[in-house]
Amino acid sequence: MLPEGAALAPMAGVTDASMRLLCAEMGCAWAVSEMLSAKGYLYSPESRAHQELLEKFDGEGILGLQLFGSDPDMVSEAAKRLEDRPFAFFDFNIGCPAHKIVGNGEGSALMRDPVLVGKIVYAFSRAVEKPVTVKIRAGWDENHKNAVEIARICEENGACAITVHPRTREQFYLGKSDWTMIRDVKQAVRVPVIGNGDIASWPDAKRMMDETGCDGVMVARAAQGNPWIFKEILAGLKGETYQPPTVEDRVQMAVQHLDMHVAWRGERYAVPEMRKHVAWYLQGTPMSGKLRARVNTMLTKEEVINALYEYLYAYKERMEKENAEV
Q1: The whole model's pTM is what?
Q2: What are the catalytic residues?
Q3: CA distance linking residue 10 with residue 218, whole number of Å
Q4: Contact indicator for 121, 132 with CB cutoff of 8 Å
Q5: For the segment 71-123, what is each residue's pLDDT rounded down to a tens digit?
Q6: CA 160 remoteness from chain centre
Q7: Distances (CA, A) of 98 to 64, 101, 186, 279
Q8: Please, what sign has the CA dihedral across residues 206, 212, 216, 218?
Q9: Amino acid 2: pLDDT
Q10: What pairing do the DSSP bridges indicate for beta strands 89-94 and 132-139?
Q11: Across-strand partners of 164?
Q12: Which stretches of the chain score pLDDT less than 70?
């Protein structure tokens, strides 16, 4: 049985330990790490980049480690070497559409090779004692939607759960995801099926579960700048009232995220990495475009925090003025 609530999807360059911890504090049921190359890890296990991908903070809760690769021996060997890390399960990526990944025959390129998928999942699941899950896409393109076939192969070869992102590789992240593919996979396998794609609120999550029968939902881009979505979905599942965050809540969360990220990564790396997060936290609020432009030139934590509080002060002044004119 899956934990109650929504899961956080892996997003390269986004869902690092800092973001995952904030999402966990907001009610995220479980998360999957940014993907780690099995081949890359075997060649340089001690590299800083790999060690950061393997970081797990206290308080994150249930976390899976996602690996990608196209060689059954390398994937299984990497998993064996990583099994003592503090991850609850492993996840295998058959969904990444990035040109660099697909060009190496990895990620969603594997949707075109069901036989190889079976070999990798078989070797992976038998190399470790921890559970192995798989994330797939609808297929390679509109004319080759084979999620059901791939899901069955994954189940037959040891996968204990399957996450379906029902866009094709050709779509990348564009267009509308086809939730009927999640339903079809759910009806074809006995292991739990997690639906992923176009969930931006509790009504979206409920509709996906109602329409597809999936066992759980996974949130991706809608969590960017909005860790409260996990609180919203959990409240919906429990029949409780949800109160959306105020602009002040968003500013305070951006500051908390920045503090945490600087403490972990150091100011030199953390501040540039946080620019996109600051923009996401305030996206759609008045005057946020000017704030984003300012923050994109900043190099220190103090500058960013000052800009955030200056923005909040200006926002409150504007709201007070508008309310007085009504």
Answers
A1: 0.95
A2: 96
A3: 10
A4: yes
A5: 999 999 999 999 999 999 999 999 999 999 999 999 999 999 999 999 999 99
A6: 19
A7: 21, 5, 26, 24
A8: negative
A9: 87
A10: parallel
A11: 136, 195
A12: 326
